[in-house]
């Protein structure tokens, strides 16, 4: 059930709990948008250079996974992880060919599994972790709070694309 209040979840420290509340709200809204889509709708490409709804859902899961690795494990993807997640992460031509012919349950299970791991990680840390400063390979500073804000903003952005594609589906 979608809630419309940001509150700290009791299973987490205060700020982590607020972040979890926002991540979970964003996910619930996304799930409500896609829950009844057919395989054909998930594979629909409104334009030859578009990404399908299924690809966008895989991308949402891949972004969250990559941010788990970067923020909690302080590393880049391994070769095997990149093999599994790279297509969804990058989208484009390869994703249009590879990420298709899956029912909604495949995407829901993928999103759910990644989120369960995120919540497990978040239960193990305290608020100060959010403000830990790190640097990307190019020397630009960021903190963990920003990384998880980006996970949320990326999902919301792609949910907007999904909503547009659903409207286009009505006219095909």
Question: What does this protein look like?
Answer:
This protein has 172 residues and is mainly alpha-helical. A two-stranded antiparallel ribbon has the order 1-2. The radius of gyration is 17 Å and the shape is globular. The protein has helices at 14-34, 39-43, 53-72, 79-90, 93-98, 104-123, 144-169; strands spanning 133-135, 141-143. The mean pLDDT is 93. The longest helix is centred in the last third of the chain and has 26 residues, at 144-169. It contains seven helices and two strands, in the order ααααααββα. The relative contact order is 0.18.
User: Taking Cα atoms only, what radius of gyration do you get, to the nearest Å?
Assistant: 17 Å
Per the principal axes of the C-alpha atoms, what is the gross shape? Answer: globular
The total count of helices amounts to 7
Q: Tell me the span between the first and last alpha carbons.
A: 31 Å
- Strand runs, count: 2
Proportion of strand residues: under 5%
Structural class based on helices, strands and sheet pairing: mainly alpha
The side-by-side strand order for the widest beta sheet comes to 1-2
Helix proportion: 55-70%
How confident overall, as mean pLDDT?
Answer: 93
> What is the succession of H and E elements?
HHHHHHEEH
List unreliable stretches of 5+ residues: none
């Amino acid at each position: 059930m979608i809630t419309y209040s940001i509150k700290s979840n009791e299973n987490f420290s205060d700020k982590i709990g607020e972040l979890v509340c926002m991540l979970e709200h964003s996910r619930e809204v996304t799930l409500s948008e896609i829950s009844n889509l057919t395989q054909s709708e998930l594979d629909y490409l409104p334009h030859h250079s578009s990404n399908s709804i299924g690809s966008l859902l895989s991308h949402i899961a891949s972004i969250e996974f990559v941010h788990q690795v970067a923020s909690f494990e302080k590393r880049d993807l391994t070769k095997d992880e990149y093999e599994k997640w790279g297509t969804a992460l990058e989208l484009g031509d390869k994703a249009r060919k590879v990420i298709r012919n899956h029912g909604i349950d495949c995407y829901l299970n993928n999103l759910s599994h990644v989120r369960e791991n995120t919540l497990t990680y978040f239960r193990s840390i305290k608020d100060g972790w959010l403000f830990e400063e790190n640097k990307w390979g190019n020397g630009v500073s960021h903190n963990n709070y920003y990384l998880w804000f980006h996970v949320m903003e990326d999902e919301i952005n792609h949910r907007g694309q999904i909503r547009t594609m659903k409207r286009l589906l009505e006219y095909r």
